[in-house]
What does this fold into?
Amino acid sequence: MVNEAVIDPAGGEDSVNTGRRRFLTATTAVVGAVGAGFAAVPFIKSWNPSARALLAGAPVTVDISALQEGQRLVVEWRGQPIWIVKRSEAILEALPTLDDQLRDPDSENTDQQPEYVREASPELRSIRPEISVLVGLCTHLGCSPEMVAEIRPEPFDPNWKGGYFCPCHKSKFDMAGRVYKGVPAPINLAVPPHHYADDNTIVIGVDPSQSNNTGAA
It folds into this structure.
């Protein structure tokens, strides 16, 4: 099945109140941080199972060939939003500088990511450095945080290095989904099982070790 990309409106109180409704009405969306606003990738293709299969945990295959630096692609797996983000070199360089501000900088909570992701890099929490794959639900009360990807001062953090901010209860996560100290969220954002079928295709819901046995790739 091919879905057209849908623009996710930029921030604001209304977006907080309607975030979950927007997600349910658009299983594939792209958000890109450009200046102070957002831009959509013109066209994104994904091949997704039926709604019933999704809730049962069927794998979701995603084409990321059109994903540009600073943009986020949102798909649904097991009824959850999955964020696929292409991080900039500046973001990758900033992530190691944040360790002393984070609750679990080395991703030691093994429930929050597959072991192969942690082994690849506990700071980046990704198989490929530039591509982040996260479950887009705050680990406090399950809200959907906003992506604030630019490295610049923000009202909630004058030393902001890019990441995710949950306006509901002020939890903060960096661009690897690692939670900051002193916020309500107790643990890092989860990384779902996934693997790369090829350079431009991610399969959500299947570990690399299982990829040859599922037929999903």
